[in-house]
Amino acid sequence: MGNELGVLLTRSSSERERWSLPWRPTQGGETLEAASIRVTQDALGEPPIWIEQIGAFGDGKRHPSDAEISVAFVGLVPHETASPRAGYTWFPMGDHPPLTPRQRSMVEMATRTIQGRLDQAPIAFRLLPPTFTLSELQQMYELLLGKRLHKASFRRALQAAWLVEPIDEWRSEGRGRPAQLFRYSPKKRRRPHRGVRFDFLYP
Amino acid sequence: MGNELGVLLTRSSSERERWSLPWRPTQGGETLEAASIRVTQDALGEPPIWIEQIGAFGDGKRHPSDAEISVAFVGLVPHETASPRAGYTWFPMGDHPPLTPRQRSMVEMATRTIQGRLDQAPIAFRLLPPTFTLSELQQMYELLLGKRLHKASFRRALQAAWLVEPIDEWRSEGRGRPAQLFRYSPKKRRRPHRGVRFDFLYP
DNA sequence: GACTTTAGTCACAATAAGTGACTAATTCGC
DNA sequence: GCGAATTAGTCACTTATTGTGACTAAAGTC
Predict the structure, then answer these.
(1) What is the pTM (predicted TM-score) of this model?
(2) Of residues B26, B160, B186, nearest to A201 (C-beta)
(3) Does at least one atom of strand D sit less than 7 Å from the CB of B172?
(4) B160: chain A residues, CB-CB within 8 Å
């Protein structure tokens, strides 16, 4: 782990020792989002730094809990501070134990949801400590996007977005030139207005 | 109507004559999407040309049907062919009768979902007849996006996307030069690969 | 035929992105 | 101490993409 997204699974004793996504039934008077934050709390002892609903899944077949539909959420926690409680284990997102088809598609949609929101919410910034180097930030984006980015392009885009400001501190990482530390401090700026896009390939 | 999105509401007699989004309870063995297509069929006599789940809503308060959570979908139909059955009425998306807060947020998310998918699925093309003029296509995009587009930019982007091909037919709309007709016929092309974007403004 | 209206295209400017090469500051091996 | 290696940070140049006004084309109106 550390340079790849992970997925937290739990081994359900009731179901022939299969791994599954952590879940819990809703409690009365609670929003779905609050319930899903509670799942994270129970599993890791802390809430996610970001969470979003993936969608509702229901096809007539019932969930073990006897619920007719399952509502999936994706949340993120920084790996360092997130030590799983007993019964929970981290797996690499791309190499986890077999899941039911429904859960597998939830995991796939989770990745897509993260990557689609990355340019709309400061997800990467909240996964990092309050101060960070630009290389750390870039590595976080690369981890989340699952692809390499060009250093100059990344920094140019970051600069144009007025999202970080340098602080008067440097950090030496052993070898190489020390890196300046930055802090997330978004400034007001005009919303980029783009025209149409036709990004779909097939009907 | 005709140059704005509409929302189809139904007047529920049970609930003090309030307008509400069309809904129905799920039937066993049916996916959520199939159920929502059935809602459209019952209301308009035809299925939507595109449909997508908006999300699940649940906050402890129950829906009139006694369901604990509601799963909302957004679907589109061309206005011309979609004549509502008794009890259903079209309203302009931006000026409809008061709804419950939950339903109001569903309507808002519906608009955002449409606009967010417009560049990823040929929604606009399916709302038009098989052959259409480029001005009609542009007007459809403008209607769905809720903003004006520049003619030259629109056509340039369309050309780059290899999505339409001209047919050997022209249509005269009364005054002005006759417009050439086009048909939707997407060609293979390489997926555009973009770098990072930082499009969010606030934490 | 002059004027209006809609279609369709062009050319140029402005922005944004991709990319390699460069300079800077440090550690490591010797 | 000194050069190689390593990481940070920036520059300059190229290429793509987008915004935009102006232009030409083909019809109808009067």
Answers:
(1) 0.91
(2) B186
(3) yes
(4) 198
**Residue A36 near residue A73, CB atoms below 8 Å:** yes
Sorting pLDDT into bands at 50, 70 and 90, what band is B121?
very high
Each residue's pLDDT tens digit, A158-190: 999 999 999 999 998 888 999 999 999 998 777
List the nucleotides on chain C closer than 7 A to a protein CB: 4-11, 16-21, 24-28
CB-based contact, B115 to chain A, within 8 Å: no
Which residues of chain A are under the pLDDT cut of 70? Answer: 1-2, 13-15, 60-66, 202-203
> Who contacts B193 (Cβ-Cβ below 8 Å, separation ≥6)?
none
How many Cβ atoms sit within 10 Å of the Cβ of residue A174?
4
- Which of B49, B106, B196, B202 best tests the A interface by mutation, with the highest count of A CBs <10 A? B196
